[in-house]
Amino acid sequence: MEKLAILGGMGPLATKVFYEKIIAHEDAKSDNEHLDILISSHASMPDRTQVILKGLHKSLVLKEVEKDLKIFEAYGAKNLAIPCNTFHYFYEDVKKLTKINIINMPYETLKELSKRGKKFIVLGTDGTKKGKVYKKFNAEFQMEEIETDQKTQEKIMEIIYKIKETNMTKSKELNDIIRTYKKLGAISILACTELSCIEIEDDLKDTIIDPLEILTKKSIELSGQKYK
Known about the structure:
This protein is an alpha/beta fold.
C-alpha cells in the first residue's frame, strides 16, 4: 500500500472527522492492515477565504504549504489529501510545488455528481464562491449550478464559523437551507468541510453530496486499500 499524507487543520474538527472516516471505511482487520498516514494539522495556515476576498498574494498560503510538502516528500507520501474546499483555489499552484499526487476533492465530487445528472448548489465559504472553485472544475461536466442569494450565503458563513468556534455537530439552519434547495430539485454540495461535520436529517441525505466522503473513498483506493 502507498503512504498517504493529509494537509489538515483547516479546520481541525474537519481533519479529525476526515481521519475517522478513513479508519471507518478501510477494509482493515488489524493495525497493520490500516494505511500509513502522516497528518499535518496546519491550523496556523492563513485564512484562505480572507486571502481570496482581499486579493492578497497567493504566496501567503503557498510559502506555508511548501513546509508541509517537504515533510510529506521526506515521508515518502504518494498521495496528498487536503480536507478543505476553499484551499483548492490554490490547487494548480500547489501542484507545481511537488511530485506528490494531490487528490482534487472538488473535481472528484463533481465527477461523482455528474452520474446523477442533477443541477446543484454550492454551500461553502465566500472564498470558495468568489474563487469559483467548483465553477472552474464544472467546466468539464457542464452541469447547471444554482447560485445562493446573499441572505442565504451570509447564513452559511455564520454556520461555518460557528462550527469552527464551537465544534458543534448539529444545525437546524443548515438542514433548512438544504431542504429549500431540495424543493428546487438541486443537490446541495457540502462545499466546506465544516459543513461535513453536521448531522444531516434522514429525509435530506439523498439530496446532498459530501466532498469529504468522496475524498475519503478516493484516498483509500488510491493508497491501495479497499473501501468498505
